[in-house]
DNA sequence: GAGTGGTCTAGACCACGTG
DNA sequence: ACGTGGTCTAGACCACTCA
């Protein structure tokens, strides 16, 4: 024996709580059901509220719970699958699924964006704001950066801003030949403006999808889209030519 | 005046702290540098340690900081780009980049996995464990589930387990014709075993990449890979036929 | 053993949604 | 007005790393 190892080697309370609650959610609760409030739950499990909250936080991160201030904690539905890089094999705005243009302005992008686009550090680019909903809920907010050189014919445009201008910019960009796209996904936290659009608090976890649109051997546009990490599962199309049907979203409980 | 609105409408302290620290990291700290300890930092900013920790947690989530118990908090390097769905346009184990087979056992998978594979609820499948490192650091742990029906000729195998057996299974699966793959990405938290392999604490945020391998009109294998969310940026190949060279990973600071 | 981050407590007050 | 989750405090102790 020597090191007699107890089964749990001092598992943190919040982690054990998470496990217990997960099992309870699987077996005893229906989607949408309201849980007891945090103070009651904490008392029931004999822990401080902060500890209970740590467990709930985990479960919300995993998409099992949804918490809303002033309302309560409810059991979340399974994550919704959101297609990325498939719905528009072409330029943004083409077949026009998913994304809703909000507005467009001419602005100097962050340094990181400018570097990818190859524009000068003080050079303004078209910045199209779009939003995406799924099943009535907002799931993503996007900033689409397009250098002026990508849309040279966009000079005499009537709308100074707003959705009309956004659509005009998207219309112009479609005239370019799209050679390819590159996606990357990373974890981030929602900034204040994104958070508001996604109906979350600042700092909420988001999946940041960065897409480079390639045309003429260079990056003709750059999209930075932030998806709600708690409610979304991003799906990427098959890399082969075969498209597969696999029924509605399901998840074994 | 009526509702005289101050500029910050009561921004939470931890969020403001996060902003201040972000700027400090951008301008005054080098990668790898050690920050003052949490108690000192909290005192310096005039907040409780818990509040300071909330800000640090955010920054760690965003990949800006790295915290290690007993050691300290250091400035993290930029996230490393990790190719997904490109390094093996073929079956796992083919060109053999990235993934290291660890072992393989015959076990009954979780219900959710069984459902996708179309196997019975008590049917055992080959479960290959693999790990992936990048720049000397572990970045991902994978469980590759392969129904016995996908590798029918794998009966008289010598190795009962271990890396040798894992390689044998991967060798067999390559004989199938790969028709396509489907990836999905979602946020999760590391379970105890994954956490240990990734050198993180249980509950650490991870990006869960689920890949369906399609052959013969059905799912011939299912991979569930968990990537460290703090250190990884997942990259997906261009969906067009064009492959683009874009130099080594870079990010504007 | 000294110093670090990780966990936990028992309170308090605030912001928000709903009746 | 009330009940909810969100923020914040000032402590305590634990687990880990390293000299």
Quick description:
The structure is a homodimer of 253-residue chains. Chain A is of the alpha+beta class and 253 residues long. The first copy, chain A, has helices at residues 13-28, 38-45, 49-61, 111-117, 163-173, 192-197, and strands spanning 65-68, 72-75, 80-84, 99-107, 125-134, 137-146, 180-189, 205-215, 218-228, 232-236.
Give a written overview of the molecule.
2 copies of one chain form a homodimer. Chain A has about 250 residues and is of the alpha+beta class. Chain A has 2 domains: about 15-75, Winged helix-like DNA-binding domain superfamily/Winged helix DNA-binding domain (Arc Repressor Mutant, subunit A, Orthogonal Bundle), CATH 1.10.10; about 80-235, Chorismate lyase, CATH 3.40.1410. In chain A, about 25% of the residues lie in helices and about 30% in strands. The first copy, chain A, is built from 6 helices and 10 strands; from the N terminus they run αααββββαββαβαβββ. The first copy, chain A, has helices spanning about 15-30, 40-45, 50-60, 110-115, 165-175, 190-195; strands at about 65-70, 70-75, 80-85, 100-105, 125-135, 135-145, 180-190, 205-215, 220-230, 230-235. A 6-stranded antiparallel β-sheet of chain A has the order 4-5-6-9-8-7. The first copy, chain A, has a two-stranded antiparallel ribbon with strand order 1-2. A two-stranded parallel sheet of chain A has the order 3-10. In chain A, a hairpin with a 3-residue loop joins strand 1 and strand 2. At the A-B interface, helix 4, strand 7, strand 8 and strand 10 of A face helix 4, strand 7, strand 8 and strand 10 of B. The structure holds a DNA duplex (19 and 19 nucleotides). Chains A, B: Pfam families: GntR, UTRA.
């Amino acid at each position: 024996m020597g090191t007699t190892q107890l089964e749990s080697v001092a598992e943190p309370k919040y982690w054990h709580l998470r496990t217990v609650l997960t099992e309870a959610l699987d077996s005893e609760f229906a989607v949408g059901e309201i849980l007891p409030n945090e103070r009651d739950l904490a008392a029931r499990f004999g822990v401080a509220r902060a500890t209970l909250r740590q467990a709930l936080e985990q479960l919300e991160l995993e998409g099992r719970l949804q918490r809303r201030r002033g309302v309560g904690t409810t059991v979340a539905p399974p994550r919704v699958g959101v297609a990325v890089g498939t719905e528009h094999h072409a330029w943004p705005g083409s077949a026009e699924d998913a994304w809703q243009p909000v507005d467009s302005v001419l602005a100097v992008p962050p340094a990181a964006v400018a570097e990818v686009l190859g524009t000068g550090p003080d050079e303004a680019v078209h910045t199209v704001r779009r939003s995406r909903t799924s099943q009535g809920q907002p799931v993503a907010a996007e900033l689409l950066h397009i250098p002026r050189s990508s849309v040279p014919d966009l000079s005499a445009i009537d709308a100074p801003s707003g959705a009309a201008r956004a659509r005009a910019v998207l219309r112009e960009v479609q005239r370019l030949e799209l050679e390819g796209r590159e996606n990357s996904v990373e974890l981030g936290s929602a900034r204040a403006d994104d958070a508001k659009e996604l109906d979350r608090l600042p700092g909420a976890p988001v999946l940041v999808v960065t897409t480079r649109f390639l045309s003429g051997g260079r990056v003709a546009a750059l999209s930075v889209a932030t998806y709600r990490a708690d409610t979304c599962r991003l799906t990427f199309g098959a890399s082969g030519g075969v498209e597969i049907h696999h029924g509605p979203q399901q998840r074994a409980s």
